[in-house]
């Protein structure tokens, strides 16, 4: 028995010695092993005051755990071999750009090679390059790399380092940069704002070819998304769709965070209005599994335990006829979704997001910005059927033409410019946000339009003056409209709609005042005039979808959806077929997989009413409740 035990001990000895040696090797060589992205950041990166004055000092993944996990999956999984590309849609508080620059810095230290960083504009490219250099200088381990590098090599949009060059380029010049050799890392920042170079394809396709040129090359792209047809959303749809799953502190069930689970409905006052102080203080997250109440102060601990998991799977039939889930992404194509629900910054608590959602609900045109900026999701245009005249007749009230049914907080005239006339509507705005059309008319001269506007409108026998105006610039009378409005400013104002990508290039705001020339040539004059640029598609949707077609919409429980204001017409409008017809001429159709607006005949009065809806946001909102 003793011999047997000794013999088994001897037989086990090589195994035990091997484990002992491996343990010693692990302890001796641990510091030299390749660290994960998060560990490397915590061991090397120091945030400067200019990077983040509130959290300056050594980097901690505790402040951005989700983003850190996404980068670890992309850069480190299977020793960096699992993924070749990664595209992400993000909210405004994700800190993805910072982590991308740190990932480039890690490459500088561990695997030098040429880098291309593309962003939407040349000025932004230079700013990001300066930020990258500051990050490099803040990493102690980079001292040996930067030793001997001249200051001129670290300035401008081309950063030259030992054995590598980093090009930071604006989207307009990305085409030229696509020919750079030996690129091991391509980064595409603000991808949905990239303007495609002339005679070239998208910046994504151009620079992807650079990342594929080397075996170890990586391609990283991210942006606040625009819509489903944007470059970022399409790239994310082709990838793994990783999300960060976090456990409920009550039941432990893992789930990814959704805005619909943020609860604040209980924070109403006696009149049914939201008590905004309570919303900020009492909003919480409701677990999808157990219905448990997750408080804001529990969020940080919950995020520390998260796991990033792919979500893009497709159903397929197995050989036995069973339905199984299979990866639905392209080989080596990672992608991720990230929203500000995961952010731990002071302005991104669940209460803050609830307040912004409430504000967006009061102004539906802001909902698009909230979805894109805060939730990091593309705007999904569902389309709208054509408005019918009979539907408009049901919106004609019990007041007469020229009158108003409710006391207005401000009144205005809104006019659409044609080659031979102006078509205008008089509108009053109620304290509750109602758009009350009072009168309409066609005018061959500007003087007649102004005289009509001066007549105002009537509420309970009191004449209410017109105090605001928007006039469409028109196709061939732009400078005439600008000059005429300038003479009557600030009451009269020229306006011009922007659509789609054009609006994004102007800053992406739904409404923006810009200065333009009032005269076509210097000889005529050099004066300028304020012109209101607006997101045409957003306000068309607001008019035809929100205020007309969906005015009686209900939620999943059959309850009326909370809306901001009604669109009203006087009873006389029901008999004016021509006036109502012009509000039915714009509608959406599906073309090449995308919803687009089409016009069938004259829609001038429709455009005038649309300008009135814009006028509510520009001139009347400050007088309205809430």
Question: Can you characterise this structure?
Answer:
With 626 residues, the protein is α/β, with parallel strands linked by helices. It has three domains: 34-63 and 93-223, P-loop containing nucleotide triphosphate hydrolases (Rossmann fold, 3-Layer(aba) Sandwich), CATH 3.40.50; 243-373, no CATH class; 389-551 and 560-570 and 605-621, no CATH class. Helices cover 33% and strands 23% of the residues. It is built from 20 helices and 29 strands. The strands form eight sheets. An eight-stranded mixed beta sheet has the order 25-26-24-23-18-19-20-27. Strands 5-6-4-7-8-3-17 form a seven-stranded mixed beta sheet, with helices on both faces. The protein has a three-stranded antiparallel beta sheet with strand order 10-9-14. The longest helix is centred in the first third of the chain and has 28 residues, at 2-29. The protein is globular, with a radius of gyration of 30 Å. The termini are far apart.
CA radius of gyration: 30 Å
Backbone structural class: alpha/beta
Helical amount = 25-40%
Number of distinct beta strands: 29
Tell me the domain tally: 3
The tally of helices reads: 20
Spans of 5+ residues with little confidence (pLDDT < 50)? Answer: 1-33, 503-507
**How are the strands ordered across the major sheet?**
25-26-24-23-18-19-20-27
Average of pLDDT:
86
Task: Kindly report how far apart the N and C termini lie.
Answer: 89 Å
Mass-distribution shape: globular
Summarize the biggest pleated sheet.
8 strands, mixed
- Beta percentage is 15-25%
């Amino acid at each position: 028995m003793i011999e047997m035990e000794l013999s088994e001990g001897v037989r086990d000895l090589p195994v035990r010695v091997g484990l002992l040696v491996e343990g010693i090797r692990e302890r001796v060589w641990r510091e030299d092993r390749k660290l994960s992205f998060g560990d490397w950041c915590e061991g090397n990166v120091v945030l400067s005051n200019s990077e983040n004055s509130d959290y300056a000092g050594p980097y901690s993944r505790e402040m951005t755990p989700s983003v850190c996990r996404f980068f670890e999956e992309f850069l480190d999984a299977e020793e960096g071999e699992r993924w070749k590309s990664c595209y992400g849609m993000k909210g405004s508080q994700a800190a993805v750009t910072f982590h991308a620059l740190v990932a480039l810095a890690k490459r500088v230290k561990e695997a030098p090679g040429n880098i291309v960083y593309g962003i939407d504009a040349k000025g932004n490219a230079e700013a990001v390059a300066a930020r990258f250099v500051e990050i490099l200088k803040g990493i102690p381990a980079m001292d040996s790399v930067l030793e001997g590098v001249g200051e001129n090599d670290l300035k401008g949009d081309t950063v030259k380092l030992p054995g590598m060059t980093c090009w930071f380029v604006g989207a307009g010049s990305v085409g030229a940069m696509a020919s750079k050799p030996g690129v091991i890392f391509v980064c595409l920042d603000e991808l949905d704002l990239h303007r495609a170079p002339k005679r070239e394809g998208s910046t994504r396709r151009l620079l992807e070819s650079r990342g594929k040129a080397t075996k170890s090359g990586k391609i990283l792209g991210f942006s606040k998304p625009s819509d489903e047809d944007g470059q970022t959303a399409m790239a994310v749809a082709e990838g793994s769709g990783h999300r960060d799953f976090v456990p409920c502190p009550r039941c432990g069930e893992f789930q990814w965070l959704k805005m619909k689970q943020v609860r604040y409905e209980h924070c109403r006052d006696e009149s049914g209005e939201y008590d905004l102080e309570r919303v900020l203080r009492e909003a919480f997250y409701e677990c999808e599994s157990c219905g448990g109440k997750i408080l804001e102060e529990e969020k940080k601990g919950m995020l520390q335990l998260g796991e990033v998991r792919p979500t893009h799977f497709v159903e397929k039939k197995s050989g036995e006829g069973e339905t199984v889930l299979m990866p639905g992404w392209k080989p080596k194509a990672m992608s991720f979704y990230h929203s500000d629900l995961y952010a731990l910054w002071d302005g991104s608590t669940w209460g803050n997001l609830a307040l912004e959602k409430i504000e967006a609900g009061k102004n539906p045109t802001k909902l698009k910005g909230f979805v894109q900026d805060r939730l990091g999701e593309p705007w999904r245009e569902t389309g709208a059927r054509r408005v019918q005249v009979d539907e408009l007749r049901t919106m004609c009230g019990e007041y007469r033409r020229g009158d108003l049914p409710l006391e207005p907080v401000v009144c205005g005239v809104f006019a659409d410019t044609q080659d031979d006339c102006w078509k205008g509507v008089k509108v009053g705005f109620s304290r509750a946000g109602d758009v009350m059309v009072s009168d309409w008319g066609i005018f061959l001269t500007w003087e007649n339009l102004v005289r009509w506007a001066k007549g105002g409108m009537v509420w309970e026998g009191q004449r209410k003056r017109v105090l605001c105006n928007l006039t469409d610039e028109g196709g061939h009378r732009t400078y005439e409209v600008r000059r005429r409005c300038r003479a009557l400013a600030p009451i009269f104002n020229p306006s011009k709609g922007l659509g789609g990508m054009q609006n994004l290039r102007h800053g992406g705001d739904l409404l923006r005042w810009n200065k333009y020339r009032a005269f076509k040539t210097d000889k005529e004059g050099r004066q300028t005039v304020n012109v209101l640029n607006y997101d045409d598609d957003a306000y068309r949707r607001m008019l035809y979808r929100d205020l007309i077609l969906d005015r009686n919409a209900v939620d999943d429980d059959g309850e009326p959806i909370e809306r901001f204001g009604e669109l009203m017409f006087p009873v006389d409008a029901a008999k004016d077929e021509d006036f109502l017809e012009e509000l039915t001429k714009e509608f959406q159709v599906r073309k090449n997989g995308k919803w687009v607006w089409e016009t069938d005949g004259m829609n001038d009065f429709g455009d005038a009413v649309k300008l009135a809806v814009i006028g509510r946001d520009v001139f009347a909102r400050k007088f309205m409740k809430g």
